[in-house]
Each structure stands twice: as C-alpha cells, then as structure tokens.
Amino acid sequence: MKKTIVMSLVATGILTSTFSFTYAQDLGGDAGAAPAVEATGDIIDSPDAAPSKASSGGSNQFWQVLTGSGFIGALLWFCLFGCLGWMIYLAIDCGILVREPKIMPQELINSVEMAMKEGDIIKAIQFCEDSPTPMASILKAGFSHVEEGFDIIEQAIGTAAGIEIEKLMQHISWLSVIANIATMFGLLGTVQGMILAFSNLAGGTPDMGALALAISQALWTTAAGLGVAIPGTVVFYFYRNKANRIVLHMEALTSELIKDLRNVEVVAE
C-alpha cells in the first residue's frame, strides 16, 4: 500500500508540473505574439509578430495534444506519466536495495566469523536473527541444520539462497515490465492518432487542424513511450548486472563461512 501511494504521488506530481510548465509557456508565447497596432486602431504587419507566433507553436501544439485527444488520449497520457513516476520510484528503490551493505552487511560477516572461530553456532544464529538481510537468512538456514550433517547444510543454504536471489530479481524485473508497458502505451497512442487522422480524411474535405492534431497525438505518444522505455531498460540491466555481481560475491563468502561446519559440534547449554 505504501509503495502504491508513493508511486501515485510521484506520477501526479510529474503530471501536474508538466501541465503547469506547458501552460505557462503557452501564456508567455501568446503574450509575445500580439500584433502591432497603429494609433488609428488598424493592425499592421510587425516583423517580430511572425517569429513570436512560430516560436510558441511547439508548446501550443503539445498542450493541444494533451487536452484535445479525447478520453482515450487523456487516459493514455495519464498511464504514460504513471509509468514514468513508477519507473523513477523503482530506480530509486533499487538504488537503495541493490547494495552490498544492504544485502550482505560487513558487520554481520564479522560477527559470524567471530562466532565460527569460537565454535558457537547459537551465537551465530542470534547474529543472523538480529540482521534481517538476505545473507542472514541464508546463513541461518544453514546453521539451523548443523546437527543433520554438512550435506543437509549445503542443501538448506542452496534453497535459501535461491529464494533470496529470486526475491531480489523479481524486484528488479519490475523495471523491465514498466519499460515494456510504456512502449505499448506509446504504440497504442500511435494507433489512436492514426485512426483519428484517417477518420478525418474519410469525411471528404479534411479539417487540416484536426488532421495535424491527430498526427501530433501519434508522434508525441510514441516519443513519450520511448522516453520512458529507454531509460527504464538501461536502469534494469544496470541493476540486474550489479545484483548478479553481489550474489556471486555472497555465494563465495557463504561457502567460506560454512566450510568449518564439517567439524563443529553443537553443545547444548
């Protein structure tokens, strides 16, 4: 629930700021495009009038696309901005989660090494319980089966490691999902824009303004979808490769920590 609230707030903030910025540009452009008027009240040509009007055309066009594409178009833009907000949230969340201190804290490693040197498995288990991290869960699974032999310990550690790695990868894979969804929304906007454009042409005498708006809808949604999908894909592969490196390091370190369990005896207090 908390994640959903955060993503909704981020998406709403981005959507609101974009609309406000575009609308402000429109107001500025319209103010600068006012024609020159003589004292007699007749409108005369001004050399600065045409460039001012042309310079505000891009922002006016984008604002018209946002507000004039109908219910389906508005829904598509809301989904695209939502994907952008979700992607930003996931990128920040993965940046916090996919780090060695978060997955395998050095304090836990030092504490377990000290307990293993003392031959105190109970203390090692307690250290793992006090540190809710993936590596602590893996080590605890192995230490909990120390009385059943080293083969069972390795199987328990392998099973726990597979679960923790899958949890981590599932979290990162949402970035790839968002990138794919954003691409699909952009493609759907392209199809909608083309449908509107050809519907306008099928009416006989086409309305050039409506035709241009439909084509703009197709192009802008395509660009927006790719604008979310490209960085989302880059961030996904970056964190996936980083997670794989951390996992390999964690597996090697776990094997080093449990190798002494072959000769450890559990003494009940």
Any overview of this molecule?
The protein has 269 residues and is mostly helical. The protein has two domains: 1-67; 69-262, no CATH class. Helix content is 81%, strand content 0%. The protein has ten helices and no strands.
Radius of gyration: 30 Å
Order of helices and strands: HHHHHHHHHH
Poorly predicted sequence stretches spanning 5 or more consecutive residues? 1-12, 14-56
Please work out how many helical segments DSSP would assign: 10
* Oligomerization state: single chain
Main sheet: strands, sense, barrel = none
End-to-end C-alpha gap: 44 Å
Shape, please? rod-shaped
**Helix percent band:** over 70%
> What structural class should be given to the helix and strand makeup?
mainly alpha
Strand content is under 5%
The domain tally reads: 2
Mean pLDDT score, rounded? 75
Total strands: the figure is 0
